[in-house]
Amino acid sequence: MEKQKGDFMGANWIVCLVVVIYLLAMLFIGWYSSTKITSNTDFMVAGRRLGPLLMAGTLAATEIGGGSSLGVVQNGMSGYGLSAAWYIITMGIAFVILSFMAPKFRAATVKTVPEYFRRRYGKSSGLVTAIIMLLPLIGLTAGQFIASSVILSTMLGLSYKLSVIIVAVVVTVYSIMGGLWSVTLTDFVQVFLIIIGMMAAVPFALSHAGGVEAVIQNVPKESLNLFAGYDFFGILSLVIMYVGTFSVGQEAVSRFYAARDEKAAKQGAWLAALLNFIYAFIPTVLGLIVLALINMGKFSADEFASVGARYALPILAIRTMPAIICGLLFSGVISATMSSSDSDLLGAGSIFANDIFKIFLKPNASSKEVMNVTKITMVLVGIASMFIALFNTQSIVSILMFCFTLRAAGSFFPYVLGHFWKKASTAGTIASLVLGTITVVYLEHVSKGMLFGIHFSQAIIPGLVAAFFGFMVFSILMPPAKEGTELAEEADD
C-alpha cells in the first residue's frame, strides 16, 4: 500500500499540483472574503444578502460531505448496492420539505438556532440548546476531517495523521478569515467540483470494468435493487432525520438566516434539492463498479483491507484514471468534506460567541469582540476535531448519523412549532430538549437500539416521539405567561 502511494505520487505529480492549487484557491477565497466583513452580522450570516443560487450552492455543499462521497461509495460496494443512493436522495426530499418552512426561518432574523430559543422561550432554553448543539458540531467536524485526510494521504503518500493536520489547518484558516462569506463562496466553487469531479470518474471506471453490461454481470442481482439496503421505514427514517437536523443544525439553517429575503430562502432550498437528486447516484454507481472490479479480479480488496473500505474510491481513481481526471476527482471529494467541516466550524463558533459569551459572559460585548470570540472558538474546535480525527477512525456515516440525531431529536418541535403555535412554553421546550437527548443517547450507547422490547434501527424516531410528548404535555400544563410567536427584541449588530 505504501509503495503504491509513493509510486503514484512520483508518476502523477500533476494530480498533486491540481489539488495544491485547489487548496491555495480556498485560502485565497478566505482572504478575499475577509475584506468584505464589516460587522458580526456579516461574519455569521453573510450580511443576510444571499440570493437563490448562492443559497443552493452552499446548502448542497454543506450537506454533501464525507458520508455522501466516500461513505456512499463504501455502502454501494458492501451490500447496499444501488439503494445506497437513498442516503443522498432523502437529503433532497428533506430540502423540498424545508422549502415550505424556509420563509419562516428567514423572517425570524436571528443568527443562530439557540438565539431563536432564547428570544422565544427565555435564556435557560437558549443555554440548554446551545450546549446540545455545540458538542455534536465537534464530532461532525472530526468526521469530515477524517474523510478529507483519507483522500489526501492516499494521493500524496503522506501519513494519515499528517494529512489530518494539513486539512485541519487549511479549513480552519480560510473559515476564520471570512466567516459565512468565505464559507459560502468556497461552497459555491466546491459543489461544482464535487459533482463534476465524481461524474468525470464514472466513464473511466466503467471502461476499466468493460462497460455497463460487464458491471451488471459481475455484481449480485440484489445490488441493482433500489430497495435492497433500505425498506420504506428506513427511507422514512432518513427523511425524518434530515428534516429534523437540517431544520435545527446551525451549519444548515444559517443559510436560511443569510438569505436575501423569504423568497430567496425558499428558492435556494428547491435548487439545493435538485443538486442532491442529480448527485445521488454518482457515488453509488462508483461503488457498484468497484464491487464488479473486485469480483472480476481486476481490483483486489486486499489493496485497502489494512486501512478500511473507505479507501476504495481513491484507489479506484489511482488505478483507472488519467492524472487530470484523478486530480479533479480528488479535489471534488476533498471539496465535499471541506465544505461540510468549514460550516460545522463556523456553526460552533457562532453558537458559543453569540449565545454563551455575549449573553452570559460579557453581555455588553461589542460586535468586534463577539466576532473575535467566534474566530477563537473556531480555532479551538478545529484543534479538538483534529485530535479526534487523529485517533478515531469510526465509519464516517456512523459519526454523522449519531451527531445528526443527537441534536435534532430534542430541539425540532420547539423550533419548528414555535413559529406557529402560540401556546408553546419554556417548560415544554426544556422537557423536549431533555427527553429527546436522553432517549437518543440511551438508544445509541446503552440499549443498542432496544426500547420496551422493540428494536429501533434509527434512534431519531423514538427520540422525536419522546420530545414531542414532553413538549406538548409541559406546554399545556405549564403554559407561557403571554401567548404569541413573537421574539424578544435584540440588537442585530
User: Per CATH, what is the topology?
Assistant: Sodium/glucose cotransporter
Mean pLDDT: 85
Main CATH class: Mainly Alpha
**C-alpha end-to-end distance:** 53 Å
As residue ranges, the low-confidence spans are: 1-11
Question: How much of the polypeptide forms β-strand, as a percent range?
Answer: under 5%
The CATH homologous superfamily? Sodium/glucose cotransporter
What would you report as the Rg, rounded to the nearest angstrom? 22 Å
What's the CATH architecture name? Answer: Up-down Bundle
Estimate nothing, just give the exact number of structural domains.
Answer: 1
Strand order of the largest sheet: 1-2
Question: Could you estimate the helical fraction of the residues in percent?
Answer: over 70%
Give the biggest sheet. Answer: 2 strands, antiparallel
The secondary-structure class comes to mainly alpha
- How many helix segments? 22
Helix-strand pattern: HHHHHHHHHHHHHHHHHHHHHEEH
Number of strands: 2
Bulk shape = globular
For this entry, give a set of tags:
493 residues, mainly alpha, Sodium/glucose cotransporter, two-stranded antiparallel sheet, 22 helices, disordered N terminus
